[in-house]
Amino acid sequence: MLILEKSLGKGAVRECYEHPADKTKCVKVLLPNADPTIFQKEYENYSVVKDVLGNYIIPCEKELVETNKGLGMICDRLIDDDGLPSKMIFEIQLDDEIREGLNSFFKLLLDHNLFFYDFNLHNFAIQIKNGKKQLKYIDLKSFRHNHSWCFLKLENVSNFLARIIIIRRMKRVYGPLRFEIPSFLNHNESHL
After folding, report:
1. What residues contact residue 167 under an 8 Å CB cut-off, 6+ apart?
2. Which stretches within the chain are classed as H helix?
3. CB 2 within 8 A of CB 65
4. In whole angstroms, how far apart are CA 157 and each of 34, 69, 153, 163?
5. Distance CA 165, CA 134 (A)
6. How many CB atoms lie within 10 A of CB 165?
7. Are the beta carbons of 85 and 125 closer than 8 angstroms?
């Protein structure tokens, strides 16, 4: 059993702890009342997208581990060259390298019909490795899982509808970052 002590952060359904035996790893545990199938869904999503998204997502292990906080999922930890935790996209000075990373990530999603629905800025981190800034998307739970008000969820059976929703959500990311919306998003939307 892993004894988790150092919390690295908390989200809506999980808390992340430093792995007690490996500082390059973290252990995610569910908060009370969270859906116990979240880890299974997250790993399934990871398995589907990992070959396409590669460096844009964080590797995680399939097997869950027992911890003093309940079952946990082990993932790589986002650490920069200086040994410090990577920062969220809104915590750093933005530049062309980050804008290009965001554009490439969104284009990859559209080119491969990989529909994620939660693009709030807390789901984007920037890891600095070997002096390069690498965009990381950290919410695999939202893959093909839209929290829309419509109970029919037609976007799950229609790539056409999914593209409309995802493009609109992608465009919303650019405003707070003060990046220009790339032409491929406008081009994609005009051809729907």
Report:
1. 110, 185, 188, 189, 192
2. 38-53, 96-111, 159-177, 183-190
3. yes
4. 27, 37, 8, 12
5. 26
6. 15
7. no
The type of residue at 155 is: E
CB 114 within 8 A of CB 108: yes
CA–CA gap between residue 101 and residue 136 (Å, rounded): 9
Tokens 């908060």 identify what position? 31
What type of residue is 82? D
* Structure tokens that stand for 134 in this block: 């690498």
Residue 126 CA, chain-centre distance (Å), reads: 11
- Angstrom distance (rounded) from CA 71 to CA 62: 12
pLDDT digits (tens), the chain, 192 positions: 999 999 998 888 899 999 999 999 999 999 998 988 989 988 999 999 999 999 999 999 999 999 999 999 999 999 999 999 999 999 999 999 999 999 999 999 999 999 888 899 999 999 999 999 999 999 887 776 555 544 445 555 578 888 988 999 999 999 999 999 999 998 755 555
- What Å distances lie between residue 149 and 86, 119, 123, 124, 184, CA to CA? 34, 17, 22, 25, 28
Residue 32 three-state SS: coil
Give yes or no for a contact between 42 and 143, defined as CB atoms under 8 angstroms apart.
no
